Amino acid sequence: MSLSIEKTLDRAAEILAGSRSVLFITGAGISADSGLPTYRGIGGLYNGRLTEEGISIEAALTGETLLHHPEVTWKYLAQIEEKCRHAQFNRAHEVIARLEARMDRLWVLTQNIDGFHQAAGSRHVIDIHGDMHRLLCLACGWRRTIGDFSGLQIPPLCPFCGRVVRPDVVLFGEFLPEEKLGIFHGELKKGFDAYVSVGTTSIFPYIQRPMVDARRHGKPTIEINPGETEISEIVDVKISLGAAEALHALQGLLEKRQK
Known about the structure:
Blueprint: H1 3-17, E1 21-26, H2 57-60, H3 63-68, H4 70-84, H5 91-102, E2 105-110, H6 116-120, E3 125-127, E4 130-136, E5 143-145, E6 166-169, H7 178-190, E7 194-198, H8 205-216, E8 221-224, E9 237-239, H9 243-258
Parallel strand pairs: 1-2, 1-7, 2-3, 7-8, 8-9
Antiparallel strand pairs: 4-5, 4-6
């Protein structure tokens, strides 16, 4: 580990040690160490190529396609789920859950739909894009949480009314859920002592904005990402490591400070 990396880790540990409230914003990169693909290219399944239907994967995963051609949307949802099926949360998720236990207030805003933060023990999670393991019927209100898609009819039908059900996720072209946005904005209004971005390119305004606003109000900001992102030039501390390696190291430094 280079000296510059050690210095950024020490500075980040100093910030977290002095914070009683922290907002973590996480993206696909935090689950990469679990074997899950980051979104771009979806792990080589498509790599920018058109689907068998002659449309982009983004077009296949829109709310409009789900409405008019649910068999298409569900076909690719099932392929993605199968590729990710046996993955589990990793050290990065565990460290964030442990930090929540020692702090007065810690919230996670995640773009991921894998449910790993909750599985690792985090209680205050805003999964703004939903969870692919939750199914719901918009016609009659039926809901069910499943472990995986194995044995699932594609497209799956509601056992009560027979209509096609959907995963409780935000597809392309759909609005973010108002209830979760309300919780998120409420917590942002309270403010946090520190803001940490982990494994996200921060291309969406609602993911980027909290870090920008924190910087404007003089609150310390940390980014954990091996690559350069939309916020890399504005954060106080940039840790150019993968999520699991960086957070494991930070946990060790924090434990040393407590002795």
